[in-house]
Amino acid sequence: MKTGGIFDFWFSIFDRAVRDRLRTGAAFRGQRLASQSKFKNRNSKISRGFTLLELLLSLALIGLLLVAMNQFIFSMGELWGRGTDVRLFDRHARALTRFVERTLDSTALPMAQGTEALGIQEVRVPDGRTLPLLTFELPQGSRVLPWPDAPLPDTVCSLALRPDQGLVIYWHSRIETHFADEVPRATVLSPLVTGMSYDYYNAAFNHWQNYSDLQRDSSWQWQLPTRIRLRFTYGRMTRETIISLPVPSQGLPLF
């Protein structure tokens, strides 16, 4: 074999191997570029913004959620406040009854001058009439009676029911200059009191009798009732409370 023929043989083999190598490398690079382009396309789909349809759906869902929360909050508010009027009405009736009862209990002891602190007196009211009213005296005054400074001492008070104002207390102080001449002031205790009646116990017949007015005894003297009934009215609600009048105790002799 000639030298030139051997050289051509080996050169053709080397050339074929190089070409196969180049083709394999080109195919590998093509696959790599294709995979990178697919990865980039996938990332581009992930990182793209929301569409208009997606935004509208999101807003609709948020609106429905807010409406549902609104309905829930209002429903809970209605359930919570359903009995508010009843609770406040009952609390007002109990508070006023307790105040009147404690005020009358504080007058159980007789006055130092020997007069009764709790009784019935004929009082001249601001409209010019003279009415028999349950009257009591507060030596220390009361915080509910309006006065610029401290409560006036030695205050003479009377309970009355006025149809246009409710339960009213008439009051003035003995230390005032025109105590005997001027009519007492009027302070409304509760506009919800629409009725006041008096319970008298008849020991002879062993039963109770209720009257809308104060009663006299057989000697035509005013008779102190045993209990007072207050009727409260607000809308369709009505409550009645009972106040037992204190029994005046005998004071110690003055030395």
Strand neighbour order, sheet with most strands: 1-2-3-4-5
- Poorly predicted runs of 5 or more residues: none
- The secondary-structure class comes to alpha+beta
Helix content: 25-40%
Shape from CA axes? Answer: rod-shaped
What count of domains describes the coordinates? 2
Give Rg in angstroms.
49 Å
Distance between the termini: 167 Å
Q: Please give the oligomerization state of what you see.
A: single chain
Order of helices and strands: HHHEEEEEEEEEEE
Indicate the proportion of strand residues.
25-35%
The description of the largest β-sheet is:
5 strands, antiparallel
| Total of helices | 3
What is the overall pLDDT average? Answer: 81
Q: In total, how many beta strands?
A: 11
Q: What does the model show?
A:
The radius of gyration is 49 Å and the shape is rod-shaped. By secondary structure, the protein is an alpha+beta fold. The longest helix has 44 residues, at 3-46. It has 2 domains: 3-81; 86-244, no CATH class. The protein contains 3 helices and 11 strands. The strands form 3 sheets. Strands 1-2-3-4-5 form a 5-stranded antiparallel β-sheet, covered by helices on one side. The protein has a 4-stranded antiparallel β-sheet with strand order 7-6-10-11, covered by helices on one side. The mean pLDDT is 81. Strand 10 and strand 11 form a beta hairpin.
